[in-house]
Amino acid sequence: MRYLGASPSWYDEVAQILLAWLSYFAAVHAMFHRQHMGFGGLVMAMPKPLRLFFVLFAELAIIAFFGVAVWYGWAILPIAAFDTMVSLPWVSLGVVQSVIPITGALMIFASIGTFPKILREAMDGIDRDHAEIAEAIAAAEADMRNDDRKGAV
């Protein structure tokens, strides 16, 4: 459309908002799979009681942080409802900003939902990073064996 000189007037503003929404929801997806950066090796090096404390503390901190995000994200929606997008005046900024409380609540849900697995792994001394690396190596070795069998035929 830009090449033809007929680009919609709302394109840039909507693209920026959609990128923000995509980033927030991608972070939620990463949280459900516990793919965010962490300090697994450091926590696994601790004795079990200290490990338990830090895992519990980290989860409570995550829930508290996103609880604040949900609370204030929700509180700002009525204020943002009186403003609109520049290029699409019929779209309220309340709709645009609703991504904050929505994804914050989903993050809390993801944290609570995946916590039993994280706690079990921590108590068993399983470092997720090392476990994922071991799985990737095993899969690559299996692929190599399959390729060798195909070449021998």
Major sheet details: none
- What's the gyration radius in Å? 23 Å
Overall strand count: 0
Query: Helix-strand pattern, N to C?
Result: HHHHHH
Envelope shape:
flat
Average residue-wise pLDDT:
89
In oligomeric terms, what are we looking at?
A: single chain
Bin the strand percentage: under 5%
Low-confidence runs: none
Distance between the termini: 52 Å
Helix content: over 70%
Name the structural class.
mainly alpha
Give the count of helical stretches: 6
Question: Can you walk me through this structure?
Answer:
The chain is mostly helical and 153 residues long. The termini are far apart.
Summarize the model shown.
It contains six helices and no strands. It is mainly alpha-helical and 153 residues long.
For the structure shown, list the relevant keywords.
single chain, 153 residues, mainly alpha, 6 helices, flat
